[in-house]
Amino acid sequence: MIAKLVLQTFVWFGAMGALLFLSAGTLHWPGAWVYLVGMV
């Protein structure tokens, strides 16, 4: 059950990161990094 939760969390962060950075077109967007770190 813990492993499933960890996997879901990583998938969620990956999806959010993909949406943020793909829409921005770059990984050099500090606002997206702050948002992702703030979600932790």
Describe the protein in words:
The chain is mainly alpha-helical and 40 residues long. The protein has one domain (2-39). It has helices at 2-24, 30-39. The model has no long low-confidence stretch (mean pLDDT 95).
How many domains comprise the coordinates? 1
Radius of gyration: 11 Å
Low-pLDDT residue spans: none
Intertermini distance: 20 Å
Global structural class: mainly alpha
Q: Considering DSSP H and I runs of 4 or more, what fraction of the residues is helical?
A: over 70%
- Give the helices and strands as they follow along the chain: HH
**Number of distinct helices:** 2
* Global geometry: elongated
Number of strands: 0
Query: What share of residues are in beta strands?
Result: under 5%
Main sheet specs: none
Mean pLDDT: 95
Which keywords apply here?
mainly alpha; single chain; 2 helices; 82% helix; 40 residues
